[in-house]
Amino acid sequence: MEPRPRVESSGALNDVYVKSQEHLLRPTSENPLPTSVPPPSAGMAGLIGVRHVLIVIGLPERGKCFIAQRLSKYLYFFHGAEVKLFDVAEYMGCQPVDIGHAAQPQDECRIEASANTLTRDLKLFLNSSGEAARRAGGNMTVPVPRNCQTAQARAAERAMAAAREEIQNTEQHLLVDEADRRRKNVDSGKVAIIFTSDGMGSFYEKWACTSKERRRWAAETIQSDKRLGAKVIFIEVIVNSAKLMEQNLLSKIRHERRLSRGAEARDSRDSRQSREGEENARGIAVPSSPATPGRPTRASSSRNHGYGSGYDWSAAAAEALEESDDIPPRLVREFHARVNRFARVYVSLQEDGSEDDLSYIKLINYGDKVVTNNMHGYLRMRIAQFLTVVHPTPHVIYLTRHGQSTYNQLGKIGGNSPLSPAGEEYARRLGAWVMPYVCYQQAAGLDSLTKTRLWTSSLQRTILTAQHIPHPIISEEDLGTPSVPPEPDADDALANGDSPTRCSAGRSSGLRGTPPRANGLRERLRSGGLSGVVGGVALGGIDLDSDRGGGGDRDRVWQQMAPRVYRNLDEIFAGEYEGMTYEEIQHSFPSEAKMRATDKIGFRYPRGESYLDILARLDPLVHELESYHEPLVIVSHQAVLRLLYSYLMGKPRHQAPKVEIPLHTVIRITYDGWNPPYEERFVLGPTAKGIRNDGTIDEGVLEDGQTNL
Questions:
Q1: Three-state secondary structure call for residue 463
Q2: In the Cβ-directed half-sphere of 705, how many Cα atoms lie within 13 Å?
Q3: Cα separation values, 498 from 345, 513, 684, 691, Å
């Protein structure tokens, strides 16, 4: 039986131009021969017809699946490329060849069959010509004018008739043959990413490329088919740091343990439901199991997400490994022994000249060192640049809009307005919430002090929203310090509203979250035990802006939540419509309002921006975001956060303008090399129910509930 292929797509380019431009491409009496397709705009260019096959290789448990997934999402979301993932493990079909044992004839036949199946699917994807490619080639056809009312149009028709007669033998009257791969400047580029989610089980598969011979076979298979016109890039993930390996292993075991718990819970629920059905049939009432209050539910994941591995750690994880525990030494020894068996027969990309004709990237310890060979061209360098910052260690990103502004009260868009009284209240609550909830992260079973970062836009409403967030100077000795019980007078700004409502995956729980975590840091700040920061200058004798002293003090201290202002995070610029309400736009410019409603992501405000323009300016920031290991708080605007949220959560790009980013709410997104993105929401308030029309707070209505926003 032929194995069922697994071919995932991160999204295809449905159009090659924005819908709001369609009316400009229709023939008119003044322009009977219009341009069929306009030049590509930011975020719609794809990869300008270039086809690439990226093959991610390396020893097991190196985070290859994660890197393939992040690279796929990045190329699709920010460059409009059509990307598909091919998992070698899903093509194996039956029992893999055990390492250290000679392959039997039947094994070789199976390996050959699975390689042929993947090759077939790969070529089908690269050779496919979708609607976008057909439309992109519109300028390369001989147009037929349909409106010949003027003498000029009739002259153009005669000229086009002569041209059609001259090339009448060309298929479909194309100026360039559709099968000619020299049309690199026409259809959207395509990227196929080949990886394996089972580095151990698929070690001997041809497309795993774990030896020089397999890599040579893969390169020749692609390059020998001239119709593909595809280029091959090998991406080798090398991890030789014992610390990184143990971090990967710990994350992997915890992930497998969550999956095991989820499976047990589902089995228990199914068993209980079955028992309830039997008891109900007999007329016996069965009490239901109570839900755990205030505990967000984490969606389970599996290898289908592309983050898994073929090795089953569930038995090892059954040793009651808790989040706070270290890896048992026996597991570490077993893991290294197993991987070393593969390392003895695995052949890394050679730098002795034997593979210099190949294009490859060697990613050593996730960007600590990067070796490139034969990497020329725009796409190759963008891939290399992105790979230098991506890593599978945990990311924690907090997204929040600015507090309500005076323009929000009036329904106006754009501008640089200050905060309303309700927005100022949110700023105070956010400042009190950040220190216990963000600066302290889970480590060793406790909430320990962690380095943190802060970004805002350059508009005053985001800077004012972040103004109450403290920026203390901490030393290396302070890191990892556990939190202490809250003082009675702590978190004054949150006292009236109690603790924030905590929502899981965007759904309001209606229950209070865990109590605010106070910390020794605030107490030491009050007593003068730590330095504060005013105007970027560290109080207490340490100047972070100075390079004097050889950087000794700079190496030992860290400024928490040091504000970094980026114009890239500014709200979408509405151009001529800045300061107007949507009702005013609808009344004064009904045709523009209709085009915006039809194509929200591509519509560009007159002399302003579109969502695709925001993508272009967010691209460099995403590289920096992916490189961080510290939790990051981003205070920005709805349009910008819609795109960042959709990218981080893996949502389709065209749906981003429809994402709701509520006011006075913090969205926490976490992900790592083995777990798909997971979302939690914290509603700090005040909510719409507690805000009067003039923006002041109704102190009698301070309840927090996302459904009210």
A1: helix
A2: 9
A3: 60, 10, 9, 18
Secondary structure letter of residue 253 according to DSSP: H
Q: Per mean pLDDT, which range of 240-249, 441-450, 527-536 is the poorest?
A: 527-536
Please classify residue 312 by burial: count the beta carbons closer than 10 Å to its beta carbon, then call 0-12 exposed, 13-18 middle and 19+ buried.
exposed
- The pLDDT value recorded for residue 661 is 94
Q: Determine the Cα–Cα distance for residues 521 and 52; give it in Å rounded to an integer.
A: 51
Lowest pLDDT segment from 252-266, 667-681, 682-696: 252-266
Strand 632-636 with 51-57, pairing: unpaired
Global pTM value: 0.76
Q: Which residue has the higher pLDDT, 239 or 540?
A: 239
**317 in Cβ contact with 256 (< 8 Å):** yes
The token pair at 664 is 């006075």
579: alpha, beta or left? (left if phi > 0; alpha if psi -120 to 50): left
Percent of residues, the chain, with pLDDT higher than 70: 60
Contact status, residue 560 vs residue 447, Cβ threshold 8 Å:
no
Angstrom distance (rounded) from CA 262 to CA 305: 15
The letter for the amino acid at 239 is: V
> 510 in helix, strand or coil?
strand
- CA–CA distance, 151 with 246 (Å, rounded to integer): 77
Integer Cα distance of 85 and 68 in angstroms: 8
- Enter the tokens of residue 561: 């939540």
Structure-token pair, residue 249? 């292993």
Average pLDDT, the chain: 73
Q: What is the mean pLDDT of residues 404-410?
A: 94
Of the ranges 163-177, 275-289, 291-305, which one carries the lowest mean pLDDT score?
Answer: 291-305
Instruction: Provide the Cα torsion 509, 512, 513, 515; round to 10°.
Output: 180
Q: Give percent of the chain with pLDDT exceeding 90.
A: 37
pLDDT band at residue 417 under the 50/70/90 scheme: very high
Q: How far apart are CA 647 and CA 531, in angstroms?
A: 37
Q: Where are the beta strands (DSSP E) in 166-229?
A: 190-195
- Where residue 230 falls (left for φ over 0; alpha for ψ -120 to 50; beta otherwise) is beta
Q: Is the pLDDT of residue 103 over 70?
A: no
372 CB-near residues (< 8 Å, 6+ apart): 360, 361, 362, 384
With residue 397 as reference, give the H or E element that holds it. strand 395-401
Q: What gap in Å lies between CA 579 and CA 414, rounded to an integer? A: 6
CA 491 – CA 578 distance, rounded (Å): 38
Judge whether residue 570 has pLDDT over 70.
yes
The neighbouring-strand residues paired with 195 are 87
What is the separation, in whole angstroms, between the first and last Cα of the chain?
Answer: 54
Ramachandran area for residue 172 (φ above 0: left; ψ -120 to 50: alpha; else beta): left
Alpha-carbon distance of 393 to 626, in angstroms, equals 10
443: nearest Cα among 473, 408, 481? 481
Quote the pLDDT of residue 338.
83
The predicted pLDDT at position 510 comes to 32
Residue of 23, 54, 686, 57 lying closest to 347 (CA atoms): 57
Cα 596-597-603 angle, rounded to 5 deg: 25
For 472-526, write each residue's pLDDT tens digit. Answer: 988 877 776 665 444 434 344 444 444 455 554 433 333 333 433 434 444 544 4
* SS3 assignment, position 564: strand
Asked, as a colleague might, if the bond just before 686 is cis with ω within 30 of 0, I would say: yes
